[in-house]
Each structure stands twice: as structure tokens, then as C-alpha cells.
Amino acid sequence: MPETNLTSNLHLLLPEFLLATLAFAVFAIDLLLPANRKKLLAWVSVAGLIGLLALALALLWGENEEMYGGLIKVDSYALFFKSFFILLGIFIILSSVDYVGKHLSHPGEYYGLILFSVLAMNVMAASREILTAYVALELMSFSFYIMVSYARYNPRSNEAGIKYVLIGAFSSAILLFGISMLYSTIGVTHFADISATLANAGDASPALWVGLALILVGLGFKVAAVPFHMWAPDVYQGAPLPVTAYLAVGSKAAAFALMLRLFAEAFMPSIDDWQIIVAIIAAITMTVGNLVAIAQHNIKRLLAYSSIGQVGFLLVGIAALSETSPLASNGVMLHIVGYSFTNLAVFVGIIAFFNMTGKEEIADFSGLADRHPFLAAAMAIGMFSLAGLPFFAGFTTKFYLFTAAANEGLLWLAGLAIVNSLISLYYYQVEIRHMYIQPAPDMEGKLEPASAHNPHPPPVGGGAEDASRHSPTPLIIGVLILMVLGTFFVGVYPFPIVEALDAATSAILPGAGS
Amino acid sequence: MELFLTILFPFVGGVLLAFFPPNRGREIKLFSAFVAFSTLVLSIVIFALYDYREGGYQFTESFTWLEHPLNISFSLGLDGISAPMVLLTGIVMFAAILVSWNIEHRPKDFFVLLMMLVAGVYGTFVTRDLFFLFFFYELAVLPMYLLIGVWGSSSDFGTFIRTKEYGAMKLVLYLVAGSVLVWVSILAVYWAASQAGTPTFSLEELQSVEFNDGFKHFENLFFPFFMVGFGVLAGLWPFHTWSPDGHVAAPTAVSMLHAGVLMKLGAYGIIRVGMILLPDGADTWMPVLIGLGTVNVLYGAIAAMSQQDLKYVVGYSSVSHMGYVFMGIATLHPLGVGGAVLQMFSHGIMTALFFALVGVIYDRTHVRDIRVLEGLSKRMGFTAAFFAVAGLASLGLPGLSGFIAEFLVFVGVFEEYLPLAVLAVIGAAITAVYILRLLAKVFFGPISPRWEHLGEASKIEMGAIALLGFVLLFVGVWPLPFMDVINAGVSTIPGVS
User: Fold this and answer.
1) Which tens digits make up the pLDDT trace of B188-216?
2) Considering the entire predicted model, what is its pTM?
């Protein structure tokens, strides 16, 4: 590669540079703000991200260029995920504001870390070299290690942080070991070079396969695929709620953005060798995730297992990748988009509920439909969507993804995935039963025995005092409305998104013209 | 545009309802009734305008939804099989809204969900695309859990209780388990079509694909998936057990819509997807279907005979009558299949009428035990009279719609499977036994003193009941307009001769 290439198109990384600047700026402003004005940091971050989104779209639309001699590529795939992650960051920050104000100290670092993780995710989707991808993955993981243990005085959060760091370090080591095995056998780390080598390899050395397997295992830990999932429920339960939401949506989406590019651009030529392995992992992951979810009593653990199930669905798409058809790649990305809206709708509902009551057991949601009809409806919509019922994103994206799998001859896997959707419908309906059918427990009696004798007005509308103390803020309701609308939009009219996905897929799978 | 409106009316109606203030029960009901009435008028107009001489799909329209390689389009069309179903949906929906006038608990949510259910039903009947057929099919199942779980009722059998939550969960899981099979085979159909070079979800284009070319036993392998998958919703034995439990737990309007219309979706799916796409598979598997259908008829009738709960009687009677639909379909004989489609219409109206009447009685007596209900006709003459009409239609009395439909099915079965026809007639005889016994005991016997002060059905309920009764009579006396349309549809099904 000629020297000049290193700086000639450096402006294409402007969004990343500015994002890092923004993150540092948030850290700096935090030092200057008095304790009661910290909310400003959230608005600074959101405004900055919106500006960056506009900039990225204006600057990078239609670009298709390599940078740093091929370490990073700025193409429509990267742009798609860049926009996605920035939007995700905005929504996570917006849904965190109330929670952070109430339950967490040090908001400055919190928002700054979210910005850093968004930066890391952007690079993960853009990197075309396996060590660059690894470094980006680590940046994201480190941001998450801190955010998971952010509730300093909560032992569960600390425990979650420790577990996550240890498991994260462990899986990083495995991943790195796999990368080193790969490098030691074929001597290249660029995706394109790996692909070319694999295509000519014929019968490659066992060391290469061990390397690939270790990379798969390392990534499996990161996305919590079974049997590398044991950390997920504890970490999900212990982390502060908005972080759990971010972990469930953001870290998975980013890891799959990386995996999709890695498998499509680098490992595609040897798909016959790994397809069945990924398919089996997918099958085990979704089955275990959904079966174990049935037994959960804590809503965060339930969603942890349900998101393990969703990882299984996404792995179905990875297993169904094809050089000639864009369906599987589109399907993975479409499912990520739909799943994000849907899961955020559920999580934002739980955050709003937790802000009001401080509770998160499934039984605590009893009678929610009477007290907060909109909250209950939004969460029910999210859960129906997660279970894959129509009009909501879940149905459309699953149909797309499973069609892709069937089209590649993996009908058994698609069938198993559909059966898993049925299983998931059961436990979501149990949750919906609590919200809609079970009467509300006498919450006042439990919380404040002294006031138990006070006759409370009927739950509809609530008492005057109740209403002010026990009602979600307009901000969080606004985010919730957006998520529900997004869930409907993806479910009913995915056409514009699929157009964007076609462009993204053509960047990583040039042969899969649509 | 007409067909799109049948989906839009209830859908938009439901969305608008969601913005009503929750405590304005009366306005909510009036608006729902208005929407239902407009949809009914629209359905009647569509049915009347369908030109059976021309046949085929009419009122067609098509919008691309996802392009190549999925090729999903939102395309609508009405043929001779779906036209009576659209009319049925309109009638039952309007009647169901009318009998829901006494819903006081969260009326807004109830009617919103009911509207979504109906939008899904219409969508399934009028679509010409496999993806959207399944989309709307699932949409119709979606609100069921809440509709039954929130507004339903539990039954106490003394030694055990069947809770509404149980009924709701059982119903939904059974139906979705059925749609798992349907979904898998839809994916298989797309895959096979894609192998054959025509990746598409359009039913018409799929119809011309030779599935057995690519993979020798494809049709034989996947027809049972459709047959059982859709059959679950239609109450196919031995997958029918959700039906009595679910229908009993459900509120009146939901029982009416579910037994009256949704079960027909299942039978419709077998015809529209199974028989039309996979005719060779249908040919292979029809002997099995007719066997199961015969069991449906006999088992349902015998089970109905031994029930003590009035609603369970009607629930099992539905299972029994859906058996005639399966038998008719399985004959692959024009008369039999035509009779099956007419039976779908006729049974839809009849069972909706049954459930409406049971609802009226239960609202006043708070009892459904037929050992306790005695001589109600003295105080509820109108209700008793129409119960008799429904009952007589159910046992196939000439002059009512059930006779024509079942007669055609019998003729078809006689032509193809003589011994089973005998069993089917025995089933009809058992039906006569339990219906007449029920009428004699519950309505026309000596009145028990407990019911001396019972009131009659309200005017609105009477309207709904009279509407359904009138349709039963109309079809019984003058079935020609229906049979013309149905025959136009049946003649296009491959393999029916």
C-alpha cells in the first residue's frame, strides 16, 4: 500500500474522532458542573450524537473506501451500523436519565462510557482486520465492565462486575489465542487475505481449525451463546437496568456486526466446514435459552435467558450465510434492528416501572394494566413481538431470518427456531398474565404498614399523591412511544430498512446481488 | 380497494378506539357497533357483487411489500371459497359486538382486541399471498390470550376447576403449536419453489410449481404439516382439546367469533394452502383426513351428550360439526367439498347463535349446569325459540342451513367412502339425541321455582340473535346464491372431481 493512503482519506474517520472528543468533553464538563446540574451531561451527549449522526450520513453516504491499508473500511455496511449504534446510544442515554438521577452516582463517567462504547461498536462494524476488530471489541468490553458495576454500593452490581471482567478476560484470552493460531498457520490477519488463503487451502492444517474454533468460542462468550452463557443471567441481573438493556441490545448487535463481517468476508470460503458447527451452537443456544427462561422469577434474568434465545436466532442467520444470496445477512441485520426496538420497549418499560417502585420480580408486575395501562400495553407489545407475533417487528424479522435459513437447506434449524418461538410465547404470556389478569397486590400494605389502613382510591388514575410519586416521567414515556412505533414500523413496513440492508450486504458479500 | 377496506375498517376502528377515554363505555360500544355494522354492510356488498359466472379471483389488487428474492406482495383477491367466509365474518362480528353490550370491565381494551381479531380474520380470508395469509392468521390468534384471560370465566366442576387462565393458555399454545407446523411447511414451500427457480410467496404463482419435481415426496411429506397445522385451529381430532376448554372459558363474543369464524380459518387454510398448493399430497392423505373427520363427528357428538355444562355441550358440538367439514373436504368430490364450505358458513352462524344464547342465559342465571336449568322457556320464550332453531339446524332439519350442508357432505361421502357415510349419519343421529334432550330438559320441561323471576334477553341481544337465526333460515330455504358462489370456487381446486 502506498504511504499516501494513510492520511489522504482520513476525513472519513471524522465521526469517530469527534465521538472520542465528545466523550472526553463529557468527562471534562462533568468536573465543572455542580452536582444538581449533572443532567446537562445527558443532553450534551444526546445533542452531540445527533450531530454526529447527521454528519456521518452526510459525509459517508455512498462511500466505499479502505483506510490504514485495509484495517478499516468505510462502506455502506459500516455506515448502516454506525447510524444504528449512534441511534441506540441516544435511546439508551434518554432512558437512563431518570434512572441515573435516582440510583447512580457519578453520571459524568456514565454518559462518557456510553459514548466510548458507541465508538467501539462503530469500529467493530468497520474493521476488516482481525486484531483491529479485537481491539475495538476490547474497548467496548472495558466500557461495559465499568458500567455493569456502576452501582457501587449494590453488592449484586459488584458481583456482576467481577464476573463480567473475569469471564471477559478469559474469553478475550481464548479469542486472542485463536487469532494467534490462525496467524501462525496462514500468516495473515486481513479479512480479505484470510478469505483468499482459505479458498486455496484445500485441506488445511488442524491448527487452523483449532484457531477458527477458538475464535468462535471467544466470540461465543461475548455474545453469550450456549454453552458459554453462564455469566449472562448474573451479570444482567446485577447490572443497573439501563446498562442491562444496553448490554442486551448494544453489545450483542455490535458483536454480531463484527461476526457477520468476519464470517462473510473472511471465513466464507470454508463455510462447509463451520456451517454445521454454528448451526448446532445456534440450535443449543436457542433451546437452552428459551427452556431455562421458563423457570425464572426475576424479570431481568428472564430477559437474560430470552436474549440468549435471540442470540440463537441470530446464529441461525450466521449459519445460513451464502455467497450468492443476501437473505441471511439481511435477515441477521433486520432481526438485530427489530430485536433492538422490541427489547428496548420492554426494558424501558421495566426501567419506568423500577423508577416508580424499585421492584423487578415478575410477580411485582401484577395489576400493572390497571395502574399504568400504557406501560403495560407497551411491554405486552414488546413481549408479543419477542415471541414473534405479527404486526410487530418480531414476526417479520423472524420470518425473514428463518426463510433465509430454509432457503439454504437448513429447514430443520428453521423448524427448531420456530418451535423455540412457541416456547418463548409461553413465558411471555405468563408475564402478560401478571400485568393484565392478576389483580394488583396490596402494594401500600407491604411497603408502608403504617399507612395500610388508609383507604386508597381505586387504582384507575390513582390517588393524587400516588399519581405524582408513582407515574413515569414524560421523557421515558416518550422513549417508550418511539420504541413501540419502531416495533410496529419494522413489523409492518420493513421495506425501507431492507433497502438499506441490501446496500450493507452488498458491501460485505459482493456476490449476493439482490 | 373493497377487500382492503374489510381489513381497514376493523383495524382503523380498533386504533381509533384505543384513543377513547377508558370510562366512556357507552360511546365505545356505539362506535364499535358502528364499525361492525359498516363492515357487515361492506361484506354483504362484496358477497353480492362477486360474479360467480366469471369465477376465479375478483376485486384483486396487489402491492409489492418486499422485492426479490423474497417476492412478498400484499395482494388481495376474493374467490368462491372466501366470499362466503367474508360474509360470515361480517355477520358474526356484528352479532358478537351486540351481545357484548354488557361488558363493563375495561370495555375499551376488550373492543380494541376484538377489532384486531376481526381484522386478522378478514386479512386471512382475502389475501392471495402465503406470507400475508400466515401474517393475518397469526394476528387472529394474538389477542386471544388477553380476551379469554381478562374477560373470560372459570368453570368449577366441584372436584376441580378449569380456570380461564388455563383455558386461555391452552388455546393459544395449541393454536401456535399448529402454526409452527404451518410456518415450517411455508418455509419448505418457499425453499422448494426457490429451487425450482420461482422464489415467491404468491399463491397463484406457487400453484403452478411442481413441488415433486425437485424432491420426490415433497407433497406427501408436507401436506400433513398443513393438514394438522391448520387442522388444530379447525378442531381436528385428536388436537381439538383446546376447543371446548377455550370456548367455555372465553367471554360470549369471543366464543362466538372463535367457534364461528376462527375455526373456519383452519379449514380454509387446509383448502387454500394445502389442497391448492399440494394437490398430490392432498390426494395421498385424504383417507387419513376423512378418518379423523369421522372420529371428530362421533367423538364430538358422544362427548357433547355426556356434558353437564351447557357451554361444553356447544363446545363439543362444534368439534362434532367441524368433523363434517373435514369429511366433506376429504371426499375431493365437488358436492362434498362444496358441502364442506357451506357447512363452514352454516356452522359458523349456528354456533355463534348457540354461544350467544348460552351467554344470554348465563348472564341471567349465572349457572350453566343443565341439571339445574329447567323449563326456561316459560320466562325466556324468545331465547328458547331461537335455541330450538339453532338446535334444529344443528341436527340437520330440512329448511335450515345445516340440512343442505350436511346433506351435500353425506352425498359426497356416499360417493367416495360408503361405510364412513353410515358413521357420519349415526353422528347426526347422536346430535339429534343430545340436542332434543337438551331442549326438552332446559327449555321445555316444567320450570324450576328457582327461575320464576328470570328476565328475557335485552332488545340488543334479541337483535343479534334474530339476525343469526334469520341467516340460518335464509340459507336453509334459499341456498342457491350461496351454492353458486361456492361451486365457482370449488371447481378451481385442483384434484376435486
Assistant:
1) 888 888 888 888 888 888 888 887 777 78
2) 0.90
Helix H or strand E segment including A255 = helix A252-261
Q: Does the beta carbon of B146 lie under 8 angstroms from any beta carbon of chain A?
A: yes
pLDDT tens, B85-144? 999 999 999 999 998 888 888 888 889 999 999 999 999 999 989 999 999 998 888 888
Confidence at residue B367, expressed as pLDDT on a 0 to 100 scale = 80
Which residues of chain B does A437 touch, with a Cβ-Cβ cutoff of 8 Å? 149-150, 164-165
Q: Distance (Å, rounded) from C-alpha A1 to C-alpha B218?
A: 54
**Residue A512: φ, ψ to 5°:** -95, 60
Confidence bin at A462 (pLDDT 50/70/90): very low
* A316–chain B Cβ distance below 8 A for any pair: no
Rounded Cα distance, B436 and B446, in Å? 15
Max CA-CA distance within chain B?
A: 73
Name the residue type at position A182.
L
Instruction: Enter the C-alpha cell of residue A144.
Output: 461495559
Q: Say what the pLDDT of residue A460 is.
A: 43
Q: What is the pLDDT of residues B40-90, one digit of tens each?
A: 999 999 998 888 888 788 888 888 888 877 888 888 888 889 999 999 999
Per-residue DSSP letters for B227-242? HHHHHHHHT-TTS-TH
User: How confident is the model over B153-194, as pLDDT tens digits?
Assistant: 887 777 778 888 888 888 888 888 898 999 999 998 888 888
Q: How many CA atoms lie within 13 A of B202 on its CB side?
A: 23
* Partner residue opposite A389 with nearest CB, options B69, B70, B138: B138
Are A403 and B22 a contacting pair at CB < 8 A?
A: no
Mean pLDDT of chain B: 87
Residue A70 backbone zone (phi > 0: left; psi -120 to 50: alpha; other: beta): left
Rounded-to-integer distance, Cα B482 and Cα B497, Å: 20
Does residue B130 belong to the interface with chain A, where contact is any CB pair within 8 Å? no
Q: Rounded to an integer, what distance in angstroms lies between the CA atom of residue B326 and that of residue B241? A: 17
The helix (run of H) or strand (run of E) holding residue A471 is none
Residue B332, helix vs strand vs coil: coil
Of A391, A395, A418, nearest to B184 by CB-CB distance is A418
Hey, where are the domains in chain A? 274-442+461-514
A276 vs B: CB within 8 A: no
Asked whether the beta carbons of residue A437 and residue B165 sit closer than 8 angstroms, the reply is yes
Nearest to A136 by CA among A119, A113, A120, A112: A120
pLDDT in tens, A176-193: 999 999 888 888 888 888
- The verdict on A305 touching B (C-beta cutoff 8 Å) is no
Q: For the stretch A471-482, what's the b/e string if a residue is b when 16 or more beta carbons lie within 10 angstroms of its beta carbon?
A: bbeeebbebbeb
